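Page 37, continued from 36.
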């Protein structure tokens, strides 16, 4: 194992979303654990898909689809599977499948590689043409100019404003909707596809204590535990959990070391999450920010922080 072998990492994210992070970070850290801190509820149903397909085929004729999260992709995929399997006298099942493939042949704009991978895994198959754009854009602000360029080209070709469909969560930021509206190059329909809520702090606190115990049991003495935070919503659960363990003497921040307590430091996936940690009372000197919102960005940030 290369790198800092006496450090460990705890990823506060869904297990199925953390695998690529775990695999990379295990190469340079003694142990990696994953703890989910958010609950997601998918809102889309078969009736929503029927409405989208009807609009696309008869009225609106959408020009592109937008996703900024894996959960929106999964919400759409689940509802689409339900719609395609239901009896529907207004459309034969084979016709539904064909209409769905035609819809997915639209350009799909995504934020980041993980969302692009979710599209490939949950939405697209070998019978559907795929045109995924933005997988190299780690932030919505980076994706926005690409969308606007596309819309400008489409508007010139169609002689009217293109219609975009944005599947998003209830806590989505205004970067894309505001930027697209301000460009006056397209009309955007937003569909709230899922809701996000923080898990109970007590449950996360217990799971964090258990994870710390497993790390010590498997790896022996650890000099530092990195706590990696992936969203402002997650930060609002994680900080109270850490405070609870601090009061019990189980953990302590790196700059306030306490005998017998595991020393931790926080890493944030991006600027907004880092700012939320500081707002919640974390010393900004304790927060390391990833250079890009990816497993490689996090890994590089942790390595760099340990030697500076």
């Amino acid at each position: 194992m290369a790198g800092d072998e006496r450090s460990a990492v705890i990823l506060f994210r869904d297990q199925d979303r953390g695998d690529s992070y775990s695999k990379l970070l295990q190469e340079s850290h003694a142990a990696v654990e994953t703890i989910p801190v958010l609950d997601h509820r998918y809102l889309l149903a078969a009736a929503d898909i029927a409405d989208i397909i009807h609009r696309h085929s008869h009225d609106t004729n959408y020009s592109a689809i937008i996703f900024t999260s894996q959960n929106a992709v999964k919400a759409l995929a689940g509802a689409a599977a339900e719609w395609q399997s239901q009896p529907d006298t207004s459309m034969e099942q084979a016709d539904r499948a064909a209409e769905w493939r035609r819809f997915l042949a639209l350009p799909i704009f995504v934020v980041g590689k993980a969302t692009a991978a979710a599209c490939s895994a949950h939405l697209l198959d070998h019978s559907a043409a795929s045109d995924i754009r933005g997988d190299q854009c780690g932030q919505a602000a980076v994706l926005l100019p690409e969308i606007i360029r596309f819309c400008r080209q489409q508007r010139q070709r169609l002689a009217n404003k293109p219609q975009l469909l944005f599947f998003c969560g209830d806590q989505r930021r205004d970067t894309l909707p505001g930027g697209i509206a301000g460009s006056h190059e397209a009309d955007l329909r937003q569909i709230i596809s899922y809701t996000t809520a923080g898990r109970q702090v007590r449950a996360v606190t217990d799971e964090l204590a258990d994870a710390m115990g497993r790390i010590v049991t498997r790896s022996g003495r650890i000099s530092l535990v990195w706590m990696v935070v992936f969203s402002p919503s997650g930060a609002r659960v994680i900080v109270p959990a850490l405070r609870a363990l601090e009061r019990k003497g189980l953990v302590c921040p790196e700059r306030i070391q306490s005998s017998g307590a595991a020393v931790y430091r926080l890493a944030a996936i991006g600027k907004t999450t880092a700012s939320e940690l500081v707002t919640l009372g974390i010393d900004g000197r304790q927060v390391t920010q990833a250079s890009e919102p990816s497993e490689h960005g996090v890994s590089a940030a942790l390595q760099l922080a340990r030697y500076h």
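The first strand starts at residue 7 and ends at 12. Flag for discussion at group meeting. The longest helix spans residues 140-158.
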